[in-house]
Specification:
about 55% helix; mainly alpha; single chain
Length: about 80
């Protein structure tokens, strides 16, 4: 996605991958999701904060709901 894609906020492909990994593995901790993505937990947390800011949501949970609503993250794919 570019700066805006049909009026949608910008999320990089990698940040969408991060959100999808969380959606696909709700039983995992953030540390375990970070391991799955081969990144540091702090990197994941920093990106989740940035995603939340980009989507103008108050929390990561809110960002996940917004990603699902926008269709950039899918459940049970």
């Amino acid at each position: 996605y570019g700066p805006e894609f049909d009026g949608l906020p910008q999320l990089t492909k990698r940040r969408i991958e991060m959100m999808q990994a969380i959606a696909d593995n709700p039983h995992l901790t953030l540390a375990q999701v970070a391991d799955l993505l081969s990144i540091a937990e702090s990197t994941l947390r920093n990106n989740l904060s940035a995603i939340s800011r980009t989507l103008e949501t108050p929390s990561v949970s809110g960002a996940m709901i917004e990603c699902l609503r926008l269709g950039v993250v899918k459940i049970g794919r």
